[in-house]
Amino acid sequence: MAPGAQFAAKRLGKELTKISKGLPAGIVLVQGDNFEEWLLDIQVLDSNPLYMGQTYRLKFKFGSSYPIEPPEVVFVKLPDRPIPIHPHIYSNGIICLDLLGQQGWSPVQNVESVCMSLQSMLTGNTKNERPPGDEEFVRGNRLRPKDIDFYYHDNNV
Amino acid sequence: MPPLNAPEEGVPAAGLASWQQDNSSTSYASYAPNMLSELPELGPLPETPTSSPPAPGPLLSPPASFMRTTRPRRFSNISISSVAATVGSETQSACVGSTRDLTGRSPVLLINYQELQYESEVDKSLECPICRTPFHAPITTKPCGHTFCSECLLRAHQLRPVCPIDRRPLDVERDFCKARVIHDQLDRLRVKCPSQGCGHVCARELLAVHYERYCEYTPVLCPDNSCDLWIARQDAAPDKGCLHKYTPCQYCSKQVMKAGLEEHYDRECSGNTVKCAQCDSSVVQHRMENHVANDCPSTVVLCKWNKYGCGKSAPRHDVQAHEKKPCIYQAIGRLAQDREDDRLIISELKVRLSAAEGRLRVAEQEKTERRERKRRQAGNTNNTMPPFVPDLNLSNSPRAAASYNNGTLDSPEDYMLAQFERMETQMEDLRKNIHELDGLHSMRLLNDTMRLNEQIAELGSKVGVIGMHTTWLMNVQRQSRGQQRAGGVVGSPLSSLASSSGGPGTTNSATGSVTNAARNAPDNEGGRYYNSSLPLRRNSDGRGENPPRL
Ligand SMILES: [Zn+2]
Ligand SMILES: [Zn+2]
Ligand SMILES: [Zn+2]
Ligand SMILES: [Zn+2]
Ligand SMILES: [Zn+2]
Ligand SMILES: [Zn+2]
Ligand SMILES: [Zn+2]
Predict the structure, then answer these.
(1) In this prediction, does ipTM exceed 0.90?
(2) Does residue A13 sit within a domain?
(3) Which of A59, B22, B197, B363 could cysteine-pair with B416, CB 3.0–4.6 Å?
(4) For A1, which residue in chain B has the nearest alpha carbon?
């Protein structure tokens, strides 16, 4: 067991207790029976035509240093769970959000706050497009999301 | 307490009791070493965290992370970095590792404060935003005033030297300070003893003393020197030897580790159960006595606040419901418990102080004797010198006393003086704490009464306003009735209301117009003149026609 795993498990246990008491509207915990990987569904609540009526599946992967280090968060594609279209979301589900990077993460964040940030990131978007260079990126990338050095060109989208 | 076999220096001081194996991973957790005391030894955090599951360790070899090859340093709060020094006093009182060498006892597993179970839900404001458990050794950031456990903040700071909440750059040396304000509240939290099998609940501040000195369930190093597993203190008698060997259970003949027998009876043993005569549940024979005394819902017991006046006595499940309601004596009971906790702390300190004083006295006597001898040896030539009287005012100026002796003192005395000085400051701290607590209590009371007073005052003013409304309404009614009685006269109540609503400014102009009217029509009848001046009079008394606002 890695030295921090206790810490991560304990913290995730705490979050789980809180989640069991209720999550904000549009966020549902699908699977959270271990302290490694959780699945959540999110929906955009307002009537943004890009995302209306859709549900998206998020996969959280927690390292043993969580919450000191950020979790790895990606959208997962399933028959009824598409990857939302957004200039910061690659078509393989990888999200380019500074909050999830080494620099932008803070240990006071949690699963719930990350989901809410993603919700609002989708709510505020009007562009029906993928990030520039999406195709090459999706074809060529073998790195794990957290190891990618994103250039956070535009923080207010 | 059975005498313990103190292991020799260099014996690995940590390991995991493998009799914990059959439990969920949470039971390991309560045995995890206290991270704070290990801070200086923490290496840099791993760059890429492994994604392997927190798998339970193999059966007889404890996970490597719980092994420690060196004993903790003797004065960990002195030798570690300045950060830990800023939270030093809590470290000293809370961290088992720092005191055990002084008491010369067998090493015990350190308390992990993040794993503690609290008696009741803890206020959210006392929760660390990083680990989401009640703060342990809290530190506050000076520039932005955010509070975290020192362990949590230091871990986060190691990765990125900024405040986790607002990302302000922080410097360990300069920007961290002990969070004094919430200390009292944290100290008072009622917490369960982390030792498995011990149900003791006490103020968090007292936990270290209980756990480290009195708790019979605290894991200590196995008395067998060749074994580095942990064993509950009550089972650690040297004559029992190592209890980490396997033996068949007398009821179900399963192979069980000796130390885990009790646990086995409690949890998994299926052999030889009997029915409880009172509650009809099936219990392992071995446990029947315990079941009747502690668990059986049909045993008649007293309310837990009976010491403080509650006379309830009924079968256990009834009493439990009664306690949960809650029992009306709970408030008094809690208060009394707090007081008892305080008294315990004080008496503990008194004992330490008097011990230190006694040792100091002995040391002083030796010192005078030595001095006397020296003087007699050297002083044969000078008999007129008066006998030396030692400066007894040591407590105020131990340093001065030491320098007075000009370096002739050797270490035991110095050590005693230092000890004494420490006791003194501890007593002083305690006194201060009690004062603070007193202040806190009366503040709380004051706050509560103030709120009540405010509410009463508000109600009073509302009643006053309603009274004014009533008078106003009655006035209007009386007036309109009077005017109706006067009948067919010029200013109707409606028009008088309208003319007066303009406020003081219009009053003046109205006065002007009235005097004009009076001048222009000097031969008017008196009655008519009187009637037209009516609105002026009402207006001048300040309150006017408008109802006061709520
Ligand atoms: Zn801050
Ligand atoms: Zn914390
Ligand atoms: Zn205990
Ligand atoms: Zn052993
Ligand atoms: Zn058995
Ligand atoms: Zn029973
Ligand atoms: Zn009662």
Answers:
(1) no
(2) yes
(3) B363
(4) B54
